[in-house]
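Cross-posting from the modeling subforum.

Setting up a comparison between two proteins and wanted a second pair of eyes on the formatting. Protein 1 (sequence, then structure tokens):
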Amino acid sequence: MKKIILVLFANLIGAAVFGQNEGRIGVFSTISKTSLLNGDDKEFGDYLPTFKPGLGLTAGYHFTLFKAIPMGISAQISYNKTGQNYNGIYQDSTSYYAYSRLNYIRFGAALQFGTNIRRQVSLALTFGANYGILTSYQDRYELIRYNNDRFIVDIKNTDVDYYDTAQTKAVLSDPIYNKTDLNIFGTLGLDILVTRDIVFGFGARMDMGMSGVENHDKVNIVTETNPPVSTQYFSTWGRFKYRTPSTPDANVRTQTTNQAVGAYLSLKYRIFNKEKIEFWYKEHRWDK
């Protein structure tokens, strides 16, 4: 059975090689509405719109399967900013403003389907997955009291600035976000041959997190005082990130995932045999 599968796979590749094969390398950018999606936090309606950019490199190989189905495989590396802005009012009429910023380097692979890539305009539908490595993060929380006094906790990686009438330095016993992240993504858009060698692409992109981004292990904030004071980070915030639990036993925080939806732009250089003309496609004539 394994030999049969290998033979079929080899024939599949062989059929693809004689199709409209070409390579494409280039850069891409995104601007997305991002979210640290958590069902408990979202119940309060404290989420504010949050937009973050991304930038990356991509390289792919495109072919026509069975001289009928345009396909492509690609790899990419990108630098992405994600996060969430928050704003809410408590029952005692005090309010807060907060934000989370997470920065990732992501490595991914994708499959592309669509219409004939040798035409001047082609439809491109892409599905893929990314593995992200967290490079840095920041969490900042400001409680605004009646007289406009502020209580501030500003976390940058494991360093903490703690302000309440006086400023105190502190450190985290462990990071509050996981070091890695896994997500799947999809894009739908158009590729346009602006010259014979250059392709401009644009469309919509959606990223969906498949793993939790928060570290739910015991994390302590330890002040740099004499003597130091240690408090548990998540017991401070309760089940909800900037709220107290709705019930006394609601002390288990649900999973938080990265989500993003936005615009996708790309610029790629084509690598292909300019002399090869096959009968099943008609390429745009640049000498007109």
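Protein 2 (same layout):
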Amino acid sequence: MIQLAATLGAMSVGIGAFGAHGLADILESTGRTETFETAVKYQFYHGLAILGCAILSHQYPGRSDWKWAARLFLVGIIVFSGSLYVLSLTGVTWLGAITPLGGLAFLMGWGWMARGASKLNG
């Protein structure tokens, strides 16, 4: 999980920089600069969340909640950020219909984290 979090963090920085410099003209012409930036931010935030899951998983090794949360965060990154990246670069607007499913995966991941935390004190 730590390697995954580190990879996602590094990818966020690289994709963000590439978007700001190498893809600026394309994103500007499609009017999707903000959409692309949103994808990068959510990937980065949830990469950090996966790092948190890794730390919690190490601290409380007998619990699977953290692993499930990390999996849901990864699904969210793939679906939410991935669909926004493709939408931003291609203009394929029907992908916007699946983006909320990635957001739902993010919410479920946070729910799994809360579930794991609730088990610690009772």
